[in-house]
Automatic annotation (TrEMBL):
One of its GO terms (biological process) is collagen fibril organization. SUPFAM superfamilies: Serpins. Residues 24-49 are annotated as: Disordered. Residues 1-23 form the signal peptide. This is Serine (or cysteine) peptidase inhibitor, clade H, member 2. The keyword NAD does not apply. Belongs to the serpin family. GO terms for cellular component: endoplasmic reticulum; extracellular space.
Length: 423
């Protein structure tokens, strides 16, 4: 339903519409909410967060036991970035290769600078476009004295804190790591860690924890009593949130995928959703996913009337990325005799090695917008396309300024009452 506008606003509406449609958007005051189509951010192809994100995602999903997945390519990339700065030789070049985008980054810009900028940009959007808790740390177990330059640089450039692990056994280490993650997730209990963590003497463990709740530019409506079926791994009853409006949208009919970009409040970040036309698991879509194709889809998306339905859901994921990062070429870092962490400590040789890369993430998919949306321009919706996510989809959260990828994930399964309970 359209909001009722006061009379005075109705009169000035044509003026607003004319201004809004003009190509020149620089006249807008900085406080004004962004139009539904802010200038597109740089494409994924030159960005280390997208490069790493897609690689890690594919490595994670090649494991058939995978369920819902959520992780922060930006946090993983920046903690690896910090580690890279503390390493030398082969260890350093393997980290660099992992973060190197296929297309040259704009001249004179280093990967580490892009990561720093992206962290800053997301920090600034926090509280406006979304509520974000994010922390990264490098834990160390009985290591030789750590260089203060490494500690300082990790903190200022990559927001990675150094934390020593206590003298206790494996169980005590795990407890310390889990307590740290819980604090990073605003007190939420993360999903249990499936892999075993054994931090021997000299081990460094990279950890990150992220909790995210986006605030839409325009609110969705939900009817809590009206449950719909989500056709995921199991069929479940979920609350669907609905909204018809103008969104950047593209339909790839050859690949049978819908691509939707929805802005968050203030336009500082956006959510991108990839949905197969029909009910299917994500295997087919995942085989298609490349940076080139994603860039093409985002470029082709244009403002379209779309009627969106999304399940209300919480997505959580706890990951140990050792196997995946090893398979992606980070091989020396784990091996005491091969690893070169001479930037971390002068006495690192034969001792300091990487013992784990752990990641806790949670995301709340809800209906709220950032504020009352009364002062946004009225949208003229005409024959909307249906974007009905009653089956698995892939999603991304990216920064509008730098284009960096804060979050990537897949929803295979939505928590809810089992569908057959109704029969
Ligand atoms: C956009 O607006 C600015 C400031 O109002 C002006 O300097 C500029 O020439 C305009 N550009 C176009 C393309 O109209
Ligand atoms: C976002 O803002 C909240 C509230 O001010 C704060 O607690 C949190 O640490 C901020 N997150 C980041 C990543 O800066
Ligand atoms: C998601 O988590 C939040 C906070 O813990 C809770 O308020 C909300 O009801 C949850 N949503 C669903 C769909 O379970």
């Amino acid at each position: 339903m359209l909001p009722r506008l006061p009379f005075c606003l109705l009169i000035s509406l044509p003026v607003l519409l004319v201004q809004g449609s003009a190509a020149n958007s620089s006249k807008k005051s900085p406080d004004a909410p962004a139009s539904p189509v802010p200038h597109p951010p740089p494409p994924p192809q030159g960005d280390p967060t997208w490069t790493l994100g897609l690689r890690v995602y594919r490595a994670l999903r090649s494991d058939s036991s995978a369920g819902n997945i959520l992780f922060s390519p930006l946090l993983v990339a920046s903690s690896l970035g910090a580690l890279g700065e503390g390493s030398a030789g082969n260890t350093a070049s393997q980290v660099r290769d992992l973060l190197k985008p296929p297309s040259p980054i704009k001249a004179g810009t280093q990967v580490v600078e892009l990561l720093s900028e992206a962290l800053k940009s997301f920090g600034e959007a926090n509280g406006t476009s979304f509520h974000l808790r994010a922390s990264s740390a490098v834990f160390s177990k009985q290591v030789p004295p750590v260089n203060q330059a490494f500690v300082k640089q990790s903190q200022t450039r990559f927001r990675v804190q150094h934390q020593p692990l206590g003298k206790g056994d494996t169980k005590a280490d795990l407890k310390q790591l889990q307590d740290w993650a819980k604090a990073g997730l605003s007190g939420l209990e993360g999903a249990p860690l499936e892999a075993e963590i054994k931090a021997g003497a000299g081990a460094l463990i990279l950890t990150s924890a992220v909790h995210f709740k986006g605030l839409w530019e325009r609110e969705f409506s939900e009817d809590k009593a009206d449950r719909r079926t989500f056709l995921g791994k199991k069929y479940t009853k979920v609350v669907m949130m609905h909204r018809a409006g103008l969104y950047r949208f593209y339909e790839d009919t050859d690949n049978m995928v819908q691509v939707l970009e929805a802005p968050l409040w203030g336009g500082k970040a956006r959510v991108v959703l990839l949905l197969p036309f029909h009910v299917e698991n994500l295997a087919r879509l995942e085989k298609l996913l490349t940076l080139e194709l994603l860039s093409k889809w985002l470029e082709k998306a244009s403002v379209t009337s779309v009627a969106i339905s999304l399940p209300k859901a919480n997505i959580t994921s706890t990951l140990s990325l050792q196997k995946q990062l090893f398979a992606l070429g980070l091989t020396d870092a784990w091996d005491q005799t091969l690893a070169d962490f001479s930037g971390v400590s002068d006495k690192s040789k034969g001792k300091i090695h990487l013992g784990g890369v752990l990641h806790w993430a949670s995301l709340e998919l809800a209906a709220q917008a950032g504020k009352e949306d009364a002062d946004l321009e009225e949208e003229h919706i005409d024959k909307p396309k249906l974007f009905y996510t009653d089956h698995p989809f892939i999603f991304f959260v990216r920064d509008s300024t730098t284009g960096a990828l804060l979050l990537m994930g897949a929803l295979d399964h939505a928590e809810g009452e089992a569908f057959h309970d109704e029969l």
